[in-house]
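Hello K.,

You asked for the raw outputs rather than the summary table, so here they are, unedited. I folded two proteins back to back in the same session to keep the settings identical. This is the first:
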Amino acid sequence: PEAVVKKYLEEVKGSPADEDCIICMEKLSSPSGYSDACEHSTLKPETVGRLTSCQHSFHMLCMLAMYSSGNKDGSLQCPSCKTIYGEKTGTQPKGKMEVSTLPQSLPGHKDCGTIRIVYHISSGIQGPEHPNPGMPYTARGFPRYCYLPDNEKGRKVLELLRVAWRRRLIFTVGTSITTGESDTVVWNEIHHKTEMDNNLSGHGYPDPNYLDNVLAELAAQGVTEGCL
């Protein structure tokens, strides 16, 4: 963990800016509020680091504590502006993603056919990256069927979803918002359209903003055209 923090933050020499560290809410000129949590670290509680790209500053011990509480995949995300450093990966359980095309059109996309994605995930045992390692998790409602227009933008979204699938970002193990069940496979902040022909539920078509919205959600997970 310490090597990851030192890779993406450069130490600020001299006295830091008169602002708060948004992780521990202490002044950057005061020691980190996480001094106790990182007693085995070689980082000093008063050391301040600046992220190399977005230039936001934090106590380096605070970043170490934040990174250590995540799934430690070698990436860091700026808590201020959400810029991602490295390649973010998730905790999606093993499964299979299948893609096929259908001749019929989606409402709002009359000029093309439809891409159908089918996600398969089975119930299993949670790994060390999940909320309750060693305990079972359930996988309700699989296989899950999702739909995109088979046009240029839809195909681009599909390729980015393939990247997100490989990086284990589309699903995670958590608590279902709909049923309240814990230790179950749930969607992970990348919205999918699970109905073809009406949008009463918000999960169907027509929805003129959907492709742009999902591109923004993918980018927030570090999945952009640069990955293709």
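The second followed immediately with the same parameters:
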Amino acid sequence: MVSAAFLKRAQALLRIRNQLARECLAELLAVFVLILITLSGSAQTVTSSGTKGNLLTSYLSGALAVMVAIHMAGGVSGAHLNPAFSLALCLLAQFPWWKFPIFLTVQTLGAFLSAGAVYALYYDAIQYYGNGTLAVSGPRETASIFATYPADYLSLQNGFLDQVMGTGLLVAGVLAIGDPRNNSVPRGLEPVAVALLVFSIELSMGSNCGCPINPARDLGPRLFTYVAGWGSEVFRWVRGRARAAPPR
């Protein structure tokens, strides 16, 4: 059997003492789990043609993923999970500006890696559903599993407004939930409150753009689809796609 002394030495060697490194790893892991659950919910809906998922299950998986991710990283990094939230904290002088680009990079990387994990998990389903083609538009497109795309009717200006309002509401709601001057949420239930906030935004603002409300959540997986074979079309604003992306 492994001795207790050996285990203690191993734990000491593996322990990360640098606070910034701990925060970055926490954000990386939490965003990875957040996007893993969120994109898997979309993949299940898309590749089953709606027989094993729908709009509601996609919304719910994304909201519950937020709850899990906050529990994973809240005690280490504060579970920002979102560059927009990190930026808001910088503007409020609650987070140092020099950390912002670091968190932005880590959050985007976590989303990118998670998209790769979802692609591996649903590889056979994606290939079968798309008849071996990785399409961004058309009746058998699969790019919307990973990133969000505008509905057919949406203009660029309205799409910008949609994301500003949705993301702004998310940030304002999270700040309100965490403000000690407001009616406090019972200790330990803050992640549940944030998940319900995300769920409400998805239910009310998901039809235009799929409701990503998180730059890293959209950019990381979109970059992955670009390098994985969907091509540069994933970065184009194309009106008249076959359908809007599943919600997030």
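The chain has one domain: 19-235.

Happy to rerun anything if the numbers look odd on your end.

Regards,
P.
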